[in-house]
Amino acid sequence: MRVAVLSPVAWRTPPRHYGPWEQVAWNIASGVAALGVDVTLYATGDSLSPGKLEYIIEKGYEEDRSADAKVAECMHISYLIERAGEYDLIHNNFDFMPLAWSRLIDTPMVTTIHGFSSPRIIPVYKRYNDRVHYVSISNSDRSNELEYIATVYNGIDQSQFTFREDHGDYLLFFGRIHHDKGAYEAVQIARLAGKKLLIAGIVQDEHYFREKVEPFIDGDRVVYLGSAEPTQRDELLGCALALLHPINFEEPFGLSVAEAMFCGTPVIAFNRGSMPELISHGETGFLAGSVEEAAGFVEHVKEVPRRKCRERAMANFSLEKMAAGYLDVYRRILE
After folding, report:
1. pLDDT tens by residue, 255-308
2. Model confidence band, residue 117 (pLDDT cutoffs 50, 70, 90)
3. Ordered domains of the chain (ranges, CATH)
4. Residue 104: its pLDDT value, please?
5. If phi over 0 gives left and psi between -120 and 50 gives alpha, with beta otherwise, what is residue 5?
6. Omega before 14 cis (within 30°)?
7. Angle (nearest 5°) at CA 165 between 160 and 171
8. Global pTM?
9. How do the residues of the chain divide into helix, strand and coil, expressed in percent and rounded to 5?
10. Predicted pLDDT of residue 229
11. Which of 62, 82, 137, 281 is the most exposed place for a label (fewest CB within 10 A)?
12. What's the pLDDT band for 17 if we cut at 50, 70, 90?
């Protein structure tokens, strides 16, 4: 079975620090390659690959600001489409743009929908309902206007995350600094709970950071660490008392939530989007409806068995489970 895995080209695949779609594309490619699939990864030229690597863009446009994002994306997608006949199947992890080419090729396309940036993009997906096979990454992130072949949860390489029974006494916010992710709410939760908060992630919204987050950063009770490298991410997640995930949007999955649980770290999240699918309330973390309720759960996180967090992550969000799910999707499409 020859499969072309199409990754975005904003960042390297896998990313050096930030790049969630690139990370999932890498996990998919390496996971199905381990099951015997002949994988060709279409990504940036500085990317790694578990199989063959094809590229036309040398570096991600977020890492090489001299590049035009739209030009890079167009060249990248069309480069694969021109070679579509070399593959049995194309696995698109690059949002809706590749769909426009799907009727021009004979090779079937499966598209993992990593979330809807806006309801306005759904008509594009709807137009290709009869041609492209859609996979959702959680049951909560499905549109009733689309047809799906499966839900496959994102899979994590557990070897990158160390299980720790021993931990520190700090709370952690790990994600992009943006209103959607709730960095401000995390600060307020930590203050109400009387706990130190570490913040790690790229600043995606400068105005939000300056107005809502930076005024509270004092280097003592609230510490901003910037973007975390993979080894630092493992330590930060694993040594935290709990991960705070007070999202302000219907998040389709939440990689950091699963990664924290692989480390054995419970998660306190707002009860939105896919969070009830990731977190077992009272067993691997807590689902809150407000800042005040979340702060109240902080005193109970030590009651959560950290090994149970790891076990739930292994059972539901492992790389192997995800790869098996996609291999089943591939076989169903090709048969």
Report:
1. 999 999 999 999 999 999 999 999 999 999 999 999 999 999 999 999 999 999
2. confident
3. 2-155+318-334 (3.40.50.2000), 158-316 (3.40.50.2000)
4. 96
5. beta
6. yes
7. 80
8. 0.92
9. 40, 20, 40
10. 83
11. 82
12. confident
Strands (E), the chain: 2-6, 38-42, 52-54, 89-92, 109-113, 132-136, 148-151, 171-174, 197-200, 222-224, 242-245, 267-270, 285-288
Please give the Cα distance from 44 to 94 (Å, whole number): 13
C-alpha closest to that of 94 among 120, 48, 60 = 60
In terms of Cα–Cα distance, which of 284, 254, 279, 288 is closest to 266? Answer: 284
Distance, CA of 20 to CA of 227 (rounded, Å): 13
Angstrom distance (rounded) from CA 188 to CA 178: 15
Two tokens at 311?
């076990």
**Range from 30-39, 166-175, 203-212, 227-236 carrying the lowest mean pLDDT:** 227-236
| Closest of 326, 267, 270 to residue 298, by C-alpha | 267
